[in-house]
Amino acid sequence: MSEQVLLIEHRPSVRILTLHRPEVRNALNSELIQELERAVDEARFAEDLRVLIITGAGNRAFCAGADLKERLAMSDGEVRRFLSATRRLFTKIEELPFPVLAAINGVSLGGGTELALACDLRVAVAHATIGLTETRLAIIPGAGGTQRLPRLLGISLAKELIYTGRQLTAQEALAKGLVNRLAEHDQLMDVCLELCGEISKAGPIALAQAKFAINRGNDAELHTGLAIEASAYEACIPTEDRREGLKAFKEKRKPVYKGR
Fold first, then answer.
1. Using CB atoms within 10 A as the burial measure, which of 44, 169, 198, 213 is most buried?
2. Which entry of 66, 173, 206, 213 is annotated as an active-site residue?
3. For the residues 174-187, what does the mean pLDDT come to?
4. Taking the domain 204-251, which CATH number applies?
């Protein structure tokens, strides 16, 4: 590999993955998908990791979607394999046992938006544009966009955005609930790290179980969702962290959670 397509930065309890193909607006090619999957698989078992941040290199783009130059050279079978690998990767990101933030530092289109949708939270710069634009290329979102966007925004709005391929400004995305917070470009990572700091105050087992209950319950009717919640709560009861939280509250100090 002549140049790294993915940069990995380690900070206390936080890991930052940076898509590093700025010359093509961080477009997703086969190599980047492979490197991302390798990094995500490794992060899953990192004991000191509390939050993962995914962002793009430069100040123009988070991710402009699939690398269409590479796509043009693919056979139909190769396109199917690429999409299968991308779906698998995004599902792995969604199912990580800790929160994942998308730091949207510019344009986020097509597969870039699908990547952001697989994350738990999204923080965008004020000049970002976000959209699922695939239908304008005579295809559809193929890495989870038709499923995750309706669950986040509601089916009617998701249909409008997918049918038209319309791009939202960061301000529109915030108003519709597609992003959680906005930031100036030079403050994007500071805002994300501040949010990570807030999240890291919680017990890691509780975070994992809360994420599991929300994600699985969202796909179920209420009665089943409540059963999922009860099971997730049950997993927290015998932990050292739960007892530490109660003890710290009684002693009026900050708890020290160890993920046990």
1. 213
2. 66
3. 95
4. 1.10.12.10
Phi, psi for residue 87 in degrees, rounded to 5: -60, -45
Predicted pLDDT at 23: 94
Domain range annotation of the chain: 6-200, 204-251
> In the annotation, is 134 catalytic?
yes
> Amino acid identity, residue 162?
I
- Three-class DSSP labels, 162-194: HHHCCCEEHHHHHHHCCCCEEECHHHHHHHHHH
- Give the CATH number of domain 6-200: 3.90.226.10
94 classed as catalytic: no
**Residue of 35, 134, 142, 206 marked catalytic:** 134
Question: For this structure, is 111 an active site residue?
Answer: yes
Summarize pLDDT for 100-141 with one digit per residue, the tens: 999 999 999 999 999 999 999 999 999 999 999 999 999 999
